[in-house]
């Protein structure tokens, strides 16, 4: 993936061309055929998944189909910093191109470009905090 493609993902949009080239060297590119499984719910989240092209169908046991995710999309970003299991299964709905940025690769990136890695993690925390804020609002009783 070239630096312009990385910039399609908000978490990476403000990184320098040098930092984006480092990420490009560290990420593992995967091409999926329609119907091919990318990951299964409960499997180890070994890194972030960046859907560059195509679409993924998302499902979860007990909930069934959770909808389609279209490119560009960044998934599992928290797994750059911590070990956890995948929350859902992802299957290619169309031919798709995905980049896997593993936790060890991100750690190498953080050694080579520490300020950029901190900016990425700040963005991850900001996104997670925003998602939690929305979830808390849904749990509160109506006012009035």
What would a concise description of this structure say?
The protein is an alpha+beta fold and 144 residues long. 35% of the residues lie in helices and 29% in strands.
Strand content: 25-35%
Assembly state of the chains shown: single chain
Rg, Cα atoms, Å:
16 Å
Quick one: biggest sheet?
Answer: 4 strands, antiparallel
Which class of secondary structure composition applies to the elements? alpha+beta
Low-pLDDT ranges: none
Strands side by side in the biggest sheet? 1-8-3-6
Task: Please report the distance between the alpha carbons of the first and last residues.
Answer: 51 Å
- Nearest-integer average pLDDT: 86
Brief descriptors of the model:
144 residues; alpha+beta; 4-stranded antiparallel β-sheet
